[in-house]
């Protein structure tokens, strides 16, 4: 082909291109960020796509946008949506795993329970399921998001409290000062008021490991495996289950008991947090401890170490005669809980600055906070510490 023929063909091609279809370029206002959720999932209408694949979310209302977070009792959640990260605890008949929702990036605690266990444990699990489903509306009770049953296994999806339990926290800080303890008590009492007077539930296993905390400064009651729903606010129970160390004298003696037995347990928990040790001295065996609870004088807060208000609060909780104990509603207005109001106690800062490895440190903008727990589980504590330093330097 001659040079002149080549130039002729090129000219014809340019003329066709000018008269043919044109490309539509997106405006500067249209960015990929418009279609991404905070967790990095591409979302357009009912289409969700991320590293785990593609999913179509159905909605009763075609105009409704797909949810960016999972809500309690969400029927769209399935076990296949959850990625297991690490076992974080063990309980009656099963384990607790930290899991991540593939489509929203949310973290949950997944309680996995095999049903080839004792009848009494199965009854406790059924009770826990019933209570968990009843108590999703209280900010001071751990939220149940969904329950599944498959091939002999019950899986309960629970709210993940990234600060761990009060027992974990005590291992780090040893003792908790009165102002922070008052703020913690307020939230626990609000949870008990909800259980006792709105849902007619006795917890019956209140202890430091069943009180959970998070980086937002929230304190929530968990683990209703041995709770009892009772028909009315005046009903009594005479069954003997729960953690013996924090059990009220009337329960150890096999007497009927009501909501007020939880108050004895609360008093022991608060006193332990303040002093750094369990209120009863170490005994030779389990039976000696039970005898001490029933036969010996009740523990008290040393008046030379604590405020009169704190000592009074402990006394109102730890009374051997159940009738002499104050209810959760009355305790919420106790002077010990109001004397530090003007200090504006910040539990969020206290929990996250304690040095506990279970804390989430918010060093980035709210939408991109740095989760120490999850980051360290994936990459190790050394890399995690380096990342924290970089985040602080930003």
UniProtKB/TrEMBL annotation:
<keyword id="KW-0418">Kinase</keyword>
<dbReference type="GO" id="GO:0004674">
    <property type="term" value="F:protein serine/threonine kinase activity"/>
</dbReference>
<feature type="domain" description="Protein kinase">
    <location>
        <begin position="82"/>
        <end position="337"/>
    </location>
</feature>
<dbReference type="GO" id="GO:0004708">
    <property type="term" value="F:MAP kinase kinase activity"/>
</dbReference>
<dbReference type="InterPro" id="IPR017441">
    <property type="entry name" value="Protein_kinase_ATP_BS"/>
</dbReference>
<keyword id="KW-0723">Serine/threonine-protein kinase</keyword>
<dbReference type="GO" id="GO:0051707">
    <property type="term" value="P:response to other organism"/>
</dbReference>
<keyword id="KW-0547">Nucleotide-binding</keyword>
<keyword id="KW-0808">Transferase</keyword>
<dbReference type="GO" id="GO:0005524">
    <property type="term" value="F:ATP binding"/>
</dbReference>
<dbReference type="InterPro" id="IPR011009">
    <property type="entry name" value="Kinase-like_dom_sf"/>
</dbReference>
<feature type="region of interest" description="Disordered">
    <location>
        <begin position="1"/>
        <end position="22"/>
    </location>
</feature>
<protein>
    <recommendedName>
        <fullName>mitogen-activated protein kinase kinase</fullName>
        <ecNumber>2.7.12.2</ecNumber>
    </recommendedName>
</protein>
<dbReference type="InterPro" id="IPR000719">
    <property type="entry name" value="Prot_kinase_dom"/>
</dbReference>
<dbReference type="InterPro" id="IPR008271">
    <property type="entry name" value="Ser/Thr_kinase_AS"/>
</dbReference>
<comment type="similarity">
    <text>Belongs to the protein kinase superfamily. STE Ser/Thr protein kinase family. MAP kinase kinase subfamily.</text>
</comment>
<dbReference type="Pfam" id="PF00069">
    <property type="entry name" value="Pkinase"/>
</dbReference>
<keyword id="KW-0067">ATP-binding</keyword>
<feature type="binding site">
    <location>
        <position position="111"/>
    </location>
    <ligand>
        <name>ATP</name>
    </ligand>
</feature>
């Amino acid at each position: 082909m001659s040079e002149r023929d080549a130039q002729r063909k090129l000219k014809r091609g340019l003329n066709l291109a000018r008269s043919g279809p044109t490309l539509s370029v997106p405006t500067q206002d249209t960015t990929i960020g418009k279609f991404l959720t905070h967790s990095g999932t591409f979302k357009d209408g009912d289409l969700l796509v991320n590293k785990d694949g593609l999913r179509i979310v159905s909605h009763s209302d075609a105009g409704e946008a797909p949810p960016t977070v999972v809500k309690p009792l969400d029927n769209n959640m399935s076990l296949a949506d959850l990625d297991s990260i690490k076992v974080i605890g063990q309980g009656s008949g099963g384990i607790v795993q930290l899991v991540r929702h593939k489509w929203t990036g949310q973290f949950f605690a997944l309680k996995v329970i095999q049903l080839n266990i004792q009848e009494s444990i199965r009854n406790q699990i059924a009770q826990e399921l019933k209570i968990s489903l009843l108590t999703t509306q209280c900010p001071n009770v751990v939220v149940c998001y969904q329950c599944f049953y498959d091939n002999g296994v019950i899986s309960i999806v629970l709210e993940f409290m990234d600060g761990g339990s009060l027992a974990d926290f005590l291992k780090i800080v040893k003792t908790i000062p009165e102002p922070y303890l008052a703020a913690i008590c307020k939230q626990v009492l609000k949870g008990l008021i909800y259980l006792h007077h709105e849902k007619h539930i006795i917890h019956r296993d209140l202890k430091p490991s069943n009180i959970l905390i998070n980086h937002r400064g929230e304190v929530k009651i968990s683990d209703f495996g041995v709770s009892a729903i009772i028909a009315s606010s005046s009903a009594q129970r005479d069954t003997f289950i729960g953690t013996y160390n924090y059990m009220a004298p009337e329960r150890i003696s096999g007497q009927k008991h009501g909501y007020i037995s939880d108050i004895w347990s609360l008093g022991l928990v608060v006193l332990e947090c303040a002093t750094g040790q369990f209120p009863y001295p170490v005994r030779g065996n389990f039976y000696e401890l039970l005898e001490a609870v029933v036969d010996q004088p009740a523990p008290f807060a040393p008046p030379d170490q604590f405020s009169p208000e704190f000592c009074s609060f402990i006394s109102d909780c730890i009374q051997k005669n159940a009738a002499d104990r104050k209810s959760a509603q009355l305790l919420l207005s106790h002077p010990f809980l109001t004397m530090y109001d003007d200090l504006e106690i910040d539990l969020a800062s206290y929990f996250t600055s304690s040095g506990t490895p279970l804390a989430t440190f918010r060093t980035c903008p709210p939408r991109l906070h740095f989760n120490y727990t999850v980051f360290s589980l994936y990459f190790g504590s050394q890399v995690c510490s380096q990342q924290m330093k970089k985040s602080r330097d930003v």
